[in-house]
Amino acid sequence: MADKSSLALVKRFLREAIAERKILAIVVVSIIGSALATLFAPYILSIAIDEYIIPGKYHELIPIALLYLLALLAQWLFATLQTFYTEVFGQKVLKNLRAKLHRKILDSNLNFFKDKSTGDLVSRIINDTNVVNDVLLSGLLGGLGSIISLSGIVVAMLFLDVKLTLVTLSSVPIMVLIALYFGGRMRRAYRDTRQKIARISSVVEESVAGIETIKAFNKEKHVEKEFSAASKDTIKAYLRVAIYMGIFWPLMNIASLLSVIVVIGYGGYQAYMGAVSIGIVVAFIQYAQRFRGPINNVVSMYDSLQSALAALERIYDVLDDRGVEEYKGLNVDRLQGRIEFQDVWFEYEKGRAVLRGINLFISPGSKIAIVGKTGAGKTTMANLIMRFYDPTRGKLLYDGIDGREINRRSLRRRIGYVPQETYLFPGTIMENIRIANPEASERDVVEVCKKLGVHEFIMKLPKGYETSAGETGKLLSVGERQLISLARAMLKDPDIVILDEALSSVDPKTERMVQDAMLKLMEGRTSIIIAHRLSITRFVNKVIVVDNGEIVEEGPIENLLLKGGYFYRLYTSQMGESSLIDISGRG
Amino acid sequence: MASLKQLVRLLRYLRSHALHFLLGLGIVVLMAYTSGVIPVLIKNAIDEGIISGKYHQAIYYALLILLVGVLNGIFSFSGRYLLIKSSQYAVYHLRMDAFKAIQRQEMVFFDKTFSGQLISRITNDTERITRFLSFRIRMFVYSIFLIVVSLYYMLSMNLLLTGVAFFTIGIVVTLNTTYAMKVRPIYDRIRQQTGVIASFATGTIAGIKTIKSLSVEKNVHGNFSKENNELYTLNVSATKITAIYGNAPFLILGIAMSAMFYYGGIAIIRDVLTVGELVAFLTYMLTMTWPLRALGFTIGDIQRSLAAASRLFEVIDSSPHSVDVPDAIELKNPKGKVEFRDVWLTYHTGKTVLKGLNLKIDPGERILITGPPGSGKSSILKILARFYAPEKGEVLLDGVDVRKIKSANLRSIVAYVPQEPFIFNRSIRENIALAKPDATMEEIIEAARRAKIHEFISSLPEGYDTVVGEKGVTLSGGERQRIGLARALLLNPRVLLLDDPVSNLDAQTERKLVEDLQHILRNKTAIIVSQRLSLAKLADRVIHMEDGKIVEEKKNSY
Lengths: 587, 558
Ligand SMILES: Nc1ncnc2c1ncn2[C@@H]1O[C@H](COP(=O)(O)OP(=O)(O)O)[C@@H](O)[C@H]1O
Ligand SMILES: Nc1ncnc2c1ncn2[C@@H]1O[C@H](COP(=O)(O)OP(=O)(O)O)[C@@H](O)[C@H]1O
Ligand SMILES: [Mg+2]
Ligand SMILES: [Mg+2]
Known about the structure:
The complex is a heterodimer of chains A (587) and B (558). Chain A is α/β, with parallel strands linked by helices and 587 residues long.
């Protein structure tokens, strides 16, 4: 069972790898060539000793020496070719795997990410692909070479003397046993050190990312202890490797010496009896010393194959995950911006409905506000409009078309969305805004920022638009990050605008200023604003109050306040009773 | 000689294991000797045993070979073990020093450094140093002695062939050293580029929602492919060097061995060399292939390993010796009086955020700070929490400059809740009890209640034992915020600094929280940054900041 599936894995991998046929052909030829060349040198040596040197044939020594040189040259040439093309082949396959994984991550839906950790996914892209290259490709191809040279050595030896061959080979089973015994153990011990090192990195990562909190709460000593423990574990793991390796290599060495000893003992006896020539015994001594490498290679190939398969499995696991977004359907160039929720139900996890029967009509070009408690389902509604998820039941219509029939990407292109958690890429502010619309010039960026009133804030920074945002934007204040991601969304010139608590860390005055600008920019666009600060509700056509996945109230602010229900309580608790006066004055 | 200093400093980390290290090196010399003597024994077996037909001699040598092989194995094991052990401990101390130094660093250091770089210092650089101390030095000593032993025995057999061998060794070592020097920088760039790809992928995953909502997948993937191709190109050029330089020694050795073969053959015919001796020469050449390569690599690696060490020393040296000044004091009975006296603050980017800030806060007074983004609100809290040092002016707590107060003491008086609290990948309980690991469950629940998060936590299937994932991913923004708050409330500090504590809370939750805070903050000095004017209820004074200055101050009259 396990074998069948590993076979399937390897087959699938090879089918994908075989695309580079020409290189593969060169690799195979050079492997065979180099294995054959390796065999010839001792063979020539034995012939030379027996037929030329001992009989004293002085003149024929030159051609045979040249032949010896030729064999060594061929060995070098093929080795060079093999090193180069194996690696090029492997790197090509590797590059494609990495690109495929990255592509896959981009195409995955948000559900895909829920149970995966960033570190783990990244390690699949970097480490697992490397393992596949190191062991599967180089290992497999190298192992192939070893098998060829091993059988070549045996054939050459058989050619010289059958009995001596059998005697010489007596140490082979010992070597195989040693390699089998230690191979798996060394690999596990080695893998253990990798894990321990990974643990050290994650302690460092967390202690650097959380340094502010660690310092603020005086936790340095505690983290230090944790780090020290992780470091000590590493020492233990390395010492275990040292012990295994320390026993393994000398044992292999002794086993290969055993062959030499046996050849001297038995071959010496045979030569003494005149049954074999001295040259042959000398050649066997040379051969016996050449076993160790190939046998070790073949045995470790078996072991590394296991870890390569584990890595391959982790890679295909991601590549085959069905949590992908499809990009089929209608391409929309422009939207009028009419959005309808028709009895929309949604659950992230089976059985726990987050939205329960939402019915909502948003007319084109109108502005609505969604308010409600944290966890009520507001962000979820935005997620559905963005088609990060599709409704479990019911449907969403855009300009009367079912969302499922529209290509997500073309839909998203028409929506300017500012998510609750702003994310900035490492790079300058200009780069961060411009990424939304690569066709926009730097002038367009400045223009949008000016219109939004964000320009002044950016110009206050040391290098203006060229100021670096730092890793995840850490060199900017939180409010500045929010303003930048707002400008980014507007640069798309979208038909629909969704702001999810987009200005939560901005002061009321700036908020009002940006809001005014936004309201102007939103003219003619459908706008959906999710906010906890309720002042915005004065400027929208309709307020939607969500509680526990349901719309509990809906209508213009005046109506809701008159009704004296949920929204009324929410509003007065935040704005105070006095604020009602200017509303009723307006109404 | 700068590098000699680095080496001495590095070796000093061996400390108590220095003896083990030296003993290990001694054993490696013995190991080299036993390895070097084996071809001689084989030669003797051939010449004195097989060719001359003295069978018992052959057996004698065969057994001798076995004995030497076993001895060699014992030496190999113990030398390796001792060296690895001593260098692992040395690197452990070095790593601890570096880590502690990082922890002592000022915040500016973290602003300037990518976290990936630090991780690489602590893991990759230290691993390279371990490899240098245990493996490289071992191979260096082993190779040198093996070559010396081999040359010695060769010399006793034939002068001319030894000359050839000596000459070859010179060329091969040079070649290998050049190879190592040439390929190392590329390997370094490969490592760096791998890091670039890793952080790129990390960015793709962290920003996936942003990427998708902007529909820029193609763009992002295009940039990824560029970096990916760059890595491929680097790998291919490394391969080119490896294929050419890495294999060249085989070519040289091949030519040398052919020459030996030819002249050796002639010498045998002329009876000045034995067959066994020729075989010994060839065997020596073969056994020296790997030591020669190791020698080249060690020579090429010394500089780089020392560079790695000096990068770590730099981290250690750039860090203040202690987080506290030598004459730091402890406030025994903190009252919580805070004063900013003409405080100026400039970040390393050149941005001056505080421009002559003057602010006096009485014990038990509560201040609300508002102001536009980037006006320096968060900076005020950070400078009081001593994350940044003022360029000019003083920040005083109970009349004492905060830089003169022992850090542990300051942290127990002042609790600071950052704008984006960091949540560790632990249980919620551990996260709340961060600063007070011995807190009872009752205390923790009480703090969670006050932070208005208890109800939510209880609704989780595993309650307080729920593990919240990397950086608290399984929590919403509002929940993270309240856990950060609970953390500080558990401490019951004299001075409380809250940066935007309610930005992601809805009006109702906020109102309940404010009601409770009114009670909790009684008699405490508090500085709260918030954009919600409803928090003014909590404050005795409201301060409005603009452009690093206080532009308005309002006393609350109730
Ligand atoms: N990815 C997710 N997986 C499972 N549950 C989720 C996920 N995202 C949100 N939820 C849950 O769905 C509910 C609604 O969340 P959300 O729409 O984000 O609320 P809000 O109204 O505060 O924006 C919450 O109970 C939240 O815990
Ligand atoms: N670590 C930092 N390095 C460089 N500049 C910073 C850093 N932190 C904040 N800034 C800059 O200093 C200014 C003030 O920041 P901050 O005090 O966080 O503002 P806010 O009033 O919004 O809290 C901002 O313009 C911000 O870009
Ligand atoms: Mg939300
Ligand atoms: Mg701030």
